[in-house]
From TrEMBL, chains A, B, C, D:
<protein>
    <submittedName>
        <fullName>3-deoxy-7-phosphoheptulonate synthase</fullName>
        <ecNumber>2.5.1.54</ecNumber>
    </submittedName>
</protein>
<dbReference type="Pfam" id="PF00793">
    <property type="entry name" value="DAHP_synth_1"/>
</dbReference>
<keyword id="KW-0808">Transferase</keyword>
<dbReference type="InterPro" id="IPR006218">
    <property type="entry name" value="DAHP1/KDSA"/>
</dbReference>
<feature type="domain" description="DAHP synthetase I/KDSA">
    <location>
        <begin position="87"/>
        <end position="325"/>
    </location>
</feature>
<dbReference type="GO" id="GO:0003849">
    <property type="term" value="F:3-deoxy-7-phosphoheptulonate synthase activity"/>
</dbReference>
<dbReference type="InterPro" id="IPR006268">
    <property type="entry name" value="DAHP_syn_2"/>
</dbReference>
<dbReference type="InterPro" id="IPR013785">
    <property type="entry name" value="Aldolase_TIM"/>
</dbReference>
<dbReference type="Pfam" id="PF18152">
    <property type="entry name" value="DAHP_snth_FXD"/>
</dbReference>
<dbReference type="InterPro" id="IPR052899">
    <property type="entry name" value="Class-I_DAHP_synthase"/>
</dbReference>
<feature type="domain" description="DAHP synthase ferredoxin-like">
    <location>
        <begin position="1"/>
        <end position="67"/>
    </location>
</feature>
<dbReference type="GO" id="GO:0009073">
    <property type="term" value="P:aromatic amino acid family biosynthetic process"/>
</dbReference>
<dbReference type="GO" id="GO:0016832">
    <property type="term" value="F:aldehyde-lyase activity"/>
</dbReference>
<dbReference type="InterPro" id="IPR041071">
    <property type="entry name" value="DAHP_snth_FXD"/>
</dbReference>
Amino acid sequence: MIVVMKPQATEEQIQQVIQRIEDYGLRVHLSKGTEVTILGVIGDDRIINRDQLVHMEGVDKLIPVLKPYKLASREFHPEDTVFEVKGVKIGGEQVVVIAGPCAVESREQILEAAQKVKEAGAHMLRGGAYKPRTSPYSFQGLGEEGLKYLKEASEKTGLPVVTEVMDIQTLPLVSEYADVLQIGARNMQNFPLLHAVGESQKPVLLKRGMSSTLEELLMSAEYILTHGNQQVILCERGIRTFENYTRNTLDINAAPALKMLSHLPVFIDPSHGTGRWELVEPVSRAAVAAGADGLIIEVHPRPDQALSDGAQSLTPERFASLMKTLVPVALAVGRSL
Amino acid sequence: MIVVMKPQATEEQIQQVIQRIEDYGLRVHLSKGTEVTILGVIGDDRIINRDQLVHMEGVDKLIPVLKPYKLASREFHPEDTVFEVKGVKIGGEQVVVIAGPCAVESREQILEAAQKVKEAGAHMLRGGAYKPRTSPYSFQGLGEEGLKYLKEASEKTGLPVVTEVMDIQTLPLVSEYADVLQIGARNMQNFPLLHAVGESQKPVLLKRGMSSTLEELLMSAEYILTHGNQQVILCERGIRTFENYTRNTLDINAAPALKMLSHLPVFIDPSHGTGRWELVEPVSRAAVAAGADGLIIEVHPRPDQALSDGAQSLTPERFASLMKTLVPVALAVGRSL
Amino acid sequence: MIVVMKPQATEEQIQQVIQRIEDYGLRVHLSKGTEVTILGVIGDDRIINRDQLVHMEGVDKLIPVLKPYKLASREFHPEDTVFEVKGVKIGGEQVVVIAGPCAVESREQILEAAQKVKEAGAHMLRGGAYKPRTSPYSFQGLGEEGLKYLKEASEKTGLPVVTEVMDIQTLPLVSEYADVLQIGARNMQNFPLLHAVGESQKPVLLKRGMSSTLEELLMSAEYILTHGNQQVILCERGIRTFENYTRNTLDINAAPALKMLSHLPVFIDPSHGTGRWELVEPVSRAAVAAGADGLIIEVHPRPDQALSDGAQSLTPERFASLMKTLVPVALAVGRSL
Amino acid sequence: MIVVMKPQATEEQIQQVIQRIEDYGLRVHLSKGTEVTILGVIGDDRIINRDQLVHMEGVDKLIPVLKPYKLASREFHPEDTVFEVKGVKIGGEQVVVIAGPCAVESREQILEAAQKVKEAGAHMLRGGAYKPRTSPYSFQGLGEEGLKYLKEASEKTGLPVVTEVMDIQTLPLVSEYADVLQIGARNMQNFPLLHAVGESQKPVLLKRGMSSTLEELLMSAEYILTHGNQQVILCERGIRTFENYTRNTLDINAAPALKMLSHLPVFIDPSHGTGRWELVEPVSRAAVAAGADGLIIEVHPRPDQALSDGAQSLTPERFASLMKTLVPVALAVGRSL
């Protein structure tokens, strides 16, 4: 960390700041410039309370140098993290496609969806039993009943299940049925829940919050990693911007940037990232070309009857066609599908 | 709701959409324009699943006309909601000031803070026992111990307590000690928690999410109101934008806009809204002038030793001075302090 | 356009609004709903002054139905616009790559850059002679001298030249040397300049403003198109968001969305869209996979000596390597390079 | 400036960076930390080309310490800048109110508007003769005819005129009629125009771009100040965010922040900052309470017939009522109106 002092800071103020830093067991490198004095902190300064320091007399601002996350960083763990979920390798050479409806709506719907996405080549099945909805008047999911249908669909198709967990109460129940626990964008900074899924030791698909920076996403992954749970997938799903033609703005930069900063696998959700099914196909191809390790795509047997997210869901036919076009793109960047 | 058909929509497609809407028990008004056909839905169309409709053949887009919230709207409830918390009237003529440290750090700290803000004229005491922190390595709050200190500080000063509840697990415990339950910005769309505080029937201070629209804030209030809990305070605390000189961008428009749209009391948090203590004073005055019903301000006996948010905390002296300057501003807009 | 009246609007107010619309020679379709009355305007209502209407008594809000642009819309012009610039076909089957330094810095620099990008397979040469810089203390470009060097580089390599024009004063001069006039992001809504490049009848590369919506970009294209100048390239170059790890957030959705909405060719600028050369390569591949008609990429012989944008410039070697990896991606989506 | 080296940077790379910095005539302070080496640059490093440095081998990132603007900074010029425009003191104890229509539409309209705002207590008259409009089909202003009407209105009322200049071509003409030249938000980074108004030595009202940071606004002011033109007013007019209930999000923090960072007077535009006339009144009061030196407010004799911005224009009656309510707020913060 670097402490920049105000131009008018007194010698006494500078000494007090140095003393405070040394009280943490760290050393300070003093640079007196022509306009300002700066103090370079030597040692692992993540232990310093920055909010305090900024309030000391004479301090202008603090500039962090070290990244605030450690376990999630590539510096700490240079090799890619690769793990298996029921035989599906995550983070490896193959691009992994998770597909299925936004919400489980009925036994028939999820069985049909699972069958169709399996046929089209998907590797895992998605479907929500507990749904976070902006409005209390919207369909909130089938709950445990939905989980049971998911399980049945998984057993019939052999596809592992990815499903969202919304709170600690339902975590034990959801864990019984899910192969991968999804943390939704709205819960990316639900810290008690992050701790709980960390402790669960189950694989976690962690979605980026709609206004969270990449650094914050990695800090949330760090919460899970501190429990020794290494099976974390980072998922870019679009951020909120001023543009309103699309539901969100898919941050394509995030895929290569996260791969640089972290060893964790990175997935992309073009369904939420665009909010329009017509854009899902080209943006899926872009995601693979940008180096994403996987995709999560909403597919519904009859989008015009979907209880949620119909506007961004593909029909099984369109999904099958998309899968075909993804193959050469994956090959073009040295991956398989 | 208005359904705009694509220019090339066929007569059959139009009839199918009309049929679908009528299946909900609603009526449709058909307008054939020179370029497009639009269908006006007559009746309370909040029951229609928009995501489905948008997927029907020939549909271009849906345009909502009715507001998606009802209980929170001023149309539904024209008079201001006013309620009392241990003798402090919220939403009335008096501007209510909640003050105290970001986090309870020790018995001494919170007792001193409470005493000082009471002397300066604050009406309620804030202080976090459970703290949502971006980093797992930051101070996470004292938990129940902190709640006990808060209670003691409250009893000694007579100030009611506002404190954050982060999850359903700790809600019963927090409810024993808190007079007002705070829902933090990161939990504004933690829907299970909203349901739970709704059921608790305790007053709730609901903070706007850092990238939530006013409509989404009102929808989250609606979650609480559906449980018959009318004691909800809306709180603007700054939104996330590209500007990085300040921690957040305080949306001053939100105060009068929320007062127009809703009957609920509206508070403003200039500490998080600016992130810099030097800006808290002028922005607090602005908040009162804009018509806010209250303020929530971070005050710490020694900000340079605060375990969190020191950069935006006022000293007790500065807070006392601020309170003095707020009085004439409140008077200028027909309020008292 | 649809006019939504307030719930309490009187019959007289409704009639006044209808009268006002009919004064424009348009017809009105009246729908009385259970809560509100809505008026559907029939005819080309782009001539109505919306700001006036919204101020009439009883009016709640106006909802546009028709797109505000016409000449730029695909509805108006269903086939892709394709045009040639000195033998390079823009908007056709081939993905066109424009490459070169941010700024022309010397005769040697631009000649070397042009030679190297030509060898690597670029189709056009970029380079700024007039540079918009945030700071008055930064290098502002070589002006006419730079244009002359560009011309020489173009003649030696056969690459057509794309260069920025910043104001009307220098437009005649820049037009003498440029094959394509670039309108920078900061000038996307410099309307006098848009009119002038429209009149010039030269091809225009129109960059999206850093906080402009797709609709606003298309409206700015419309300014140029109204002068009968059809040779307009739309260019996504990243938008400003809260994310600060990257210089901008490249809006990958924009590529397929603009292709849907408009017939104009769509290019992507991964250099400004990321601000980091390490990300330029994967994001370029993503752009091609998403359906972009072309790329504009910053390449500098020695980025560590560049007078501007060094951080996002590729070396000629890295550019050559990128071009090789783009070929299979282009093929994978049915294009050539 | 501080240069942070990568953890794996070699000694040779570090020495090359030091050499490069010393070539600028600056000195370097080296700090070897446990994880990284940082180099503190001593001297006025605004002359260093940062884009180059970031591209050198071994460099991780550059962190600026000095502010990039100088003439606009309060450090350079501690006292408030105060200047007079035809007897109206800008930046002094009195809060200055500029009022009038968005656009000059006719002689009658501007004469009536000027008379009414004068009676209500406004100090200056606004009105646009050249209008930047998103759509080429919208009213673009009366041009020179509008300027003449403005002049007449000014002479009849004694109010100085503030009007927008959109390009260098019309600058001489606009300068003949204007007392203050307005640079609109879309032109905040039209650098040739900034140079030109700097040279003109006329007072300038510089509006913040809709996605510009405070630092960028100050850099644009710096462009004007480098020409020795000290008469610059900074104007916050709302920024673009995800919130769409209001036209823009008025950044109230900007008022006190700009006053801290700079000596220049700071005005606020609540009309564009909200986009809704119902919000203009409370937000104007907030602006004065936050310490703004002035306001610029749209007033139209008949907003429902305005050719632009009717939705955010006050009637003369509402403006007169607003002015009355501003007086006690100004007094409450030690100002007059």
